[in-house]
TrEMBL record, chain A:
GO CC field: cytosol
Record-given protein name: Cytoplasmic tRNA 2-thiolation protein 2
Encoding gene (name): 107362984
GO MF assignments: nucleotidyltransferase activity; sulfurtransferase activity; tRNA binding
Subcellular location: Cytoplasm
Main location: cytoplasm
Keyword match Nucleotide-binding: no
Transmembrane segments: none
Job description of the protein: Plays a central role in 2-thiolation of mcm(5)S(2)U at tRNA wobble positions of tRNA(Lys), tRNA(Glu) and tRNA(Gln). May act by forming a heterodimer with NCS6/CTU1 that ligates sulfur from thiocarboxylated URM1 onto the uridine of tRNAs at wobble position.
Family: Belongs to the CTU2/NCS2 family.
Automatic annotation (TrEMBL), chain B:
UniProt xrefs under SUPFAM superfamilies: MoaD/ThiS
Gene designation: 107369960
One GO CC term, this protein: cytosol
Record organism: Tetranychus urticae (Two-spotted spider mite)
GO biological process: protein urmylation; tRNA thio-modification; tRNA wobble uridine modification
Primary subcellular site in the record, as a coarse category: cytoplasm
Involved pathway(s): tRNA modification; 5-methoxycarbonylmethyl-2-thiouridine-tRNA biosynthesis
Chain positions with 1-thioglycine modification: G108
Stated family: Belongs to the URM1 family.
Modification(s) after translation: C-terminal thiocarboxylation occurs in 2 steps, it is first acyl-adenylated (-COAMP) via the hesA/moeB/thiF part of the MOCS3/UBA4 homolog, then thiocarboxylated (-COSH) via the rhodanese domain of the MOCS3/UBA4 homolog.
Xref: Pfam families: Urm1
Name by which UniProt lists this protein: Ubiquitin-related modifier 1 homolog
Length: 409, 108
């Protein structure tokens, strides 16, 4: 499979003393990448390793059946680019036992310009993503973040062929919805809340499209690294009770079940897969791009984990595996209206209550969230988030529902 | 005649944001040939990182380096091979080498 290292040693390798040089652990071929500072792979063996891991992650849960319609959430970033490539590659395999048998459709959600980049850069990135989708053998649908505020009678997504980012009449470009979106984001005081808000909005929008299109499952490209970072961030924010559903392979809190076929790949593996296969991800800037490591809880956690990983290469796996051992909360418990997690009954007597009490005591937020019936059951962290959104003072507090604070119907 | 080491440097995965959105640079690095005493005799990756920081970096050095070494979370490849296989900081650059900096960090 792999050529043995004799004559064609690459320049970069030829200068390393031979006794220091490590070879592919499977075939002793030319090294390409080392995973966790111990497992060396050549290009061919890394390809086999990656596509096997992808297939087996999907296969071992026995959820996905031949012909199932799957909505593949594609952001253009490294994780979902690798996922899309693995899907396309898997559909084209000739050997039956290696061939993926489900029926995928791509969903690309156009993000807003969070980091204030130039129009030229945004146009260039959008163009690259559209070109990538055109190249795919799969059909694609396009939506945009502001579609969570789309007028009820209008569509929330279009087919790739109907998408023109410069056409104001394109149904998924809605200035009114966009300014509503910005005003919600801008009313949040911390970048941590803004990231949370975006995450929940994105989740809701994907659900909306998947439900409308009658899909069986949603695939998202979350890597093991992202899971570990998010898990620690969530813990620090008091979301302990939702960690299991949010970060396990299957997430069935919503209408359409979410599966994470990339969750056993660390970010390094994903990046090397993209290099190996020549896929060119497009990184969309986030709320905290250009900002310091301390800009948000997630960014801080990310740099903390990266620092640890540098000296202890098993850090991400260890956090990830520990998270996998957590028990699912009682499914008959009370569900948070916003994130649909089961609210820990213990938590209702502690963190949430303390928070409610502190709001009861604060003058500005009198009786907005308190004592208002079952309509507003929120978990601790969603309660935090909702309380942070500034209230439109022209509407009387009695008439406000959660939708006025955040999103959707 | 002064000696130079010619290499290509590439930035991906958000690293380009720190270099004015330039994704590829061709560099001609001076090599100490007796006349120019300030230039290194040989260039290691570590020297290159330092050179990029001093001469080419457009934004926030702390997002590129961390105590003289590359910031954790940034991967380096030399001629499409993981630098961890090649001796990392101590790898000695050769004429024609292609060095790729790629960020694993979310959103750069
Ligand atoms: Zn091999
Ligand atoms: Zn919640």
């Amino acid at each position: 499979m792999c050529s043995n290292l004799d004559t064609d040693i690459p320049v970069a390798l030829s200068k390393i003393k031979l006794d220091q040089l490590q070879f592919c652990k499977r075939c002793q071929g030319k090294p390409f990448v080392v995973i966790q500072r111990k497992d060396v792979f050549c290009r061919d063996c890394f390809y086999e390793y990656g596509s096997h891991k992808f297939r087996s992650t999907i296969g071992k849960t026995r959820k996905v059946k031949p012909g199932d319609r799957i909505l593949v959430a594609f952001s253009g970033g490294a994780g979902s680019s690798a996922m899309l490539d693995m899907i396309e590659d898997g559909l084209n395999k000739s050997a039956n036992h290696k061939k993926l048998m489900f029926s995928p459709t791509i969903l690309y959600i156009r993000e807003l310009n969070y980091a204030n980049e130039s129009d030229a850069i945004i146009t260039q990135k959008t163009h690259k993503i559209v070109e990538r989708l055109k190249k795919s053998c799969l059909s694609s649908m396009i939506s945009s973040m502001e579609m969570i505020y789309q007028d009820k009678e209008k569509p929330t997504f279009v087919d790739l062929g109907d998408f023109d980012p410069l056409d104001k009449d394109c149904p998924i470009i809605n200035d009114k919805a966009q300014s509503k979106f910005w005003s919600k984001i801008n009313s949040l005081s911390t970048d941590t809340s803004k990231e949370d808000f975006l995450r929940i909005s994105r989740q809701q929008l994907i659900q909306k499209v998947a439900t409308a299109g009658n899909f069986k499952y949603i695939f998202v490209g979350n890597t093991c690294t992202k899971t570990a970072i998010q898990m620690l961030t969530d813990l620090a924010q008091g979301k302990g009770s939702q960690i299991t559903s949010e970060h396990s392979f299957t997430d069935s809190r919503f209408n359409v079940e979410i599966l994470k076929p990339m969750r056993e790949f660390i970010k390094k593996e994903v990046l090397f897969w993209n290099i190996l296969r020549g896929t060119e991800p497009v990184e969309w800037s986030t709320i905290t791009t250009f900002k310091s490591n301390k800009a948000s809880l997630m960014k801080l956690t990310e740099s903390y984990i990266n620092g640890l990983e540098h000296d202890f290469p098993a850090t991400v796996y260890t956090i990830f595996k520990t998270g996998n051992k957590l028990k699912f909360p009682d499914p008959n418990g009370v569900i948070c209206k916003l994130c649909k997690s089961v609210i820990d009954p213990e938590q209702r007597c502690s963190a949430s209550n303390a928070l409610q009490l502190s709001h009861q005591l604060s003058k500005n937020l009198d009786d907005v969230f308190i004592n208002d019936g079952s309509d507003r059951i929120l978990c601790y962290s969603c309660n935090n988030l909702v309380n942070e959104i500034k209230i439109d003072s022209t509407v009387s507090p009695q008439k406000l529902g959660i939708a006025d604070y955040l999103l959707y119907d | 005649m002064s000696n130079h080491l010619n290499i290509i440097v590439e930035f991906k995965g958000g690293m380009e944001l720190l270099f004015d959105n330039v994704t590829k640079k061709e560099l001609s690095l001076p090599v100490n040939s007796g006349e120019d005493g300030s230039a290194p005799v040989e260039w290691t990756i570590k020297d290159l990182i330092n050179h990029l920081k001093e001469k080419h970096l457009k934004e926030r050095p702390e997002l590129f380096v961390n105590d003289d070494s590359i910031r954790p979370g940034v991967l380096i490849l030399v001629n499409d091979v993981d630098w961890e296989i090649l001796g990392e900081n101590e790898y000695k650059l050769a004429d024609g080498d292609k060095v790729l900096f790629i960020s694993t960090l979310h959103g750069g």
